Amino acid sequence: MPFTEDNIRTIHAIARCGSFATAAEQLHRVPSAVSYTVRTLESRLGVELFDRSGHKVQLTPAGEYFLNHSQLILNSFDSLARNTVAIGGGTSITFNIVVNNIINRDGLVGLTRHMHEHFPHIELCIRTEVYNGCWEALYQHSCDVVIGAPNYPPQLEGIVCELMGEMEWDFVVSCAHPLASCTHPLTADDVRPFSVVMVMDTAVQYAKQKAWALEGQHIIYVPDLEVAIEFMRQGIGIGYVPHHLIKQVLNRGDVLKKALVESKPATRLFYAWPTEADTPVFQACRDYLQQAEVRLSWHQ
């Protein structure tokens, strides 16, 4: 079908102006050229797109359909041009961000708005990884930046790390759990008989790490921390949860926080990215992430 950017934009201009002559002025063309474009397209389609019987030209039903559905084609033309220029200038059209499953996700709203303001046509892809899965995404070049990579990288070559802060953990049990009545700091022997709930490390090539479990303890793996909290609330299992995720549940009295003789230390969190990262899109992302209030927001 003979659709070109020129004849589609011509139809849109006439529909917007209600006049062939006015559309020709906006398109910087002579009226006869505009009329010829429309007649040729109508002839090849075998339908009339405009009703010319009145003082002001109007779209026919076929013209209305053409106008509405051809907007997608115009958008594709625009996107093709923008992306070609961006790639020619060294800017990728896709920017991939990995977030650790334990961070506070509220900050993603501000980050997304910031990126959209600076690069409105970039395809922003945000996904979650767990534990060493965060580092693996960097080493396998499947992301541009990681927010909340935990502890220390398995290897330092080829990446840059910036400390974000530390994530505090709370060990919680259901109010009806056998451990709920214990008033002393719990020992390994106290805790070992009960199932622990956690989210599985998403690493494939690197060794999977456990958030916390004792040797020989039964583990229940769940898809995310929201499910883990619900399992703990229901007494199905026990375990550690980031403080920022569990504090409201604790305040409501739905679960109890317990002290352990050997408690889980805070987790150091990092921003991380490849050493060669230097695109304008990356620079905009890093500038936003390095703001002090943003850096704190991920683990509070």
What does this structure look like?
This protein is an alpha/beta fold and 300 residues long. It has 11 helices and 12 strands. The strands form 4 sheets. It has a 5-stranded mixed β-sheet, sandwiched between helices. Strands 10-7-11 form a 3-stranded antiparallel β-sheet. α1 packs across α4. The chain is elongated, with a radius of gyration of 29 Å. The mean pLDDT is 89.
Strand ordering within the main sheet? 4-3-5-12-6
**How much of the residues is beta strand, in percent?**
15-25%
- Strand tally is 12
Structural class assignment: alpha/beta
Describe the sheet with the most strands: 5 strands, mixed
Structural Rg:
29 Å
Span between N and C termini?
A: 57 Å
Helical percentage? 40-55%
Low-confidence stretches: none
Judging from the principal axes of the Cα atoms, what is the shape?
elongated
Helix run count: 11
Whole-number average pLDDT?
A: 89
Order of helices and strands: HHHEEHEHEHEEEHEEHEHEEHH
Key terms:
11 helices, 41% helix, 3-stranded antiparallel beta sheet, alpha/beta, 12 strands, single chain, elongated
Compile the SSE list and pairings.
Blueprint: H1 5-17, H2 20-27, H3 31-45, E1 50-51, E2 58-59, H4 61-88, E3 94-100, H5 107-118, E4 123-129, H6 132-139, E5 145-150, E6 159-167, E7 169-174, H7 188-191, E8 196-199, E9 219-222, H8 225-233, E10 239-242, H9 243-252, E11 255-257, E12 267-274, H10 280-289, H11 292-297
Parallel strand pairs: 3-4, 3-5, 8-9
Antiparallel strand pairs: 1-2, 5-12, 6-12, 7-10, 7-11
Helix pairs in contact: 1-2, 1-4, 2-3, 5-10
